[in-house]
Amino acid sequence: MVWTAIWNEYLTSxxxxxSSPPIIAACDRFGSLAAFGRSGSPNLSANASGYGLCSLxxxxxxxxxxxxxxxxxxxxxxxxxSDDSFPCGLLTKKTVITPDRTIGQYQDLVIPVTNxxxxxxGFMVLAGDVFDVPIRKDIIHNVVKWQLAKRQQGTHSxxxxxxxxxxxxxxxxxxxxxxxxxxxxxxxxxxGGCIMHGPKPRSHAIKMNKQVRRLGLKIALTAxxxxxxxxxxxxxxxxxxxxxxIVNYYNQMENTKKVLVVEGGPIDEKLKLATQNLHxxxxxxxxxxxxYSILLHDTLVMSRDAVNKIVERMHTPINR
Length: 320
Prior knowledge:
This is Large ribosomal subunit protein uL4m. One of its GO terms (biological process) is translation. The chain is α/β, with parallel strands linked by helices. Helices cover 36% and strands 9% of the residues. It has 3 domains: 2-90, no CATH class; 109-137 and 207-315, Ribosomal protein L4/L1 (Ribosomal Protein L4, Chain: A, 3-Layer(aba) Sandwich); 158-198, no CATH class. The longest helix has 17 residues, at 210-226.
């Protein structure tokens, strides 16, 4: 629409010369020369001084090409602008897409709050030092390794030569039989004998600093928040204990395979009965939230109370 008006102005100026170059007049009417993408162009300045109209179509074509490839603008235009510097009909109505935020800036996050009925319950601010920390895969790996090693029972046990039942007599003479020399039938090479250097009950736990363990949980929560897989509920109240209540809500979730529900206090009895037959929904209290459970579930559902308790736990000084 703009270029049509400029072209008409140009044709009119060729038939009826005016006191000023037509391209400059058209630009003054529809905006500055920056709209053509060639602000300060030598051809345009020559046209302005010498009225050389022979090169104007090339300038127009060049300006149209630059305008089509142009993505940034320093002007702020609104439909309510008082001046007629730009036609309001050309202003787009689409929402401007903001760039993705940078993770790990320790900025507080604002997240909507809902419930199992998808009702709007306002918003909640998540602490930036808990839900927006730099991602460290090495720390996550070490914390998971520590957690799996610590939960290993270590009750495996085998019998040594002194614990195996059997005789202590020498099976045969030391010499003269042509057989190998032996002193007991409870050795590891005989059937029913002992196991040499076998496992005995022990602890498989490894040492890890509390600061690293706490940082691992913060990183796991940050990852879920950055992926958009962190959902905050106002409460975990269900109308009935029927499983269909959880199934209906699960079917509405997109790109979700397993859900971890974190309750702040004691787990509600209706919620426990509604999820006990679903292998893809697990419930734990906030005191039991850990890195390995977060990684096993791709979606994290937390109540307001659970978020507050987790933040309080992360802010509590570590006893030296």
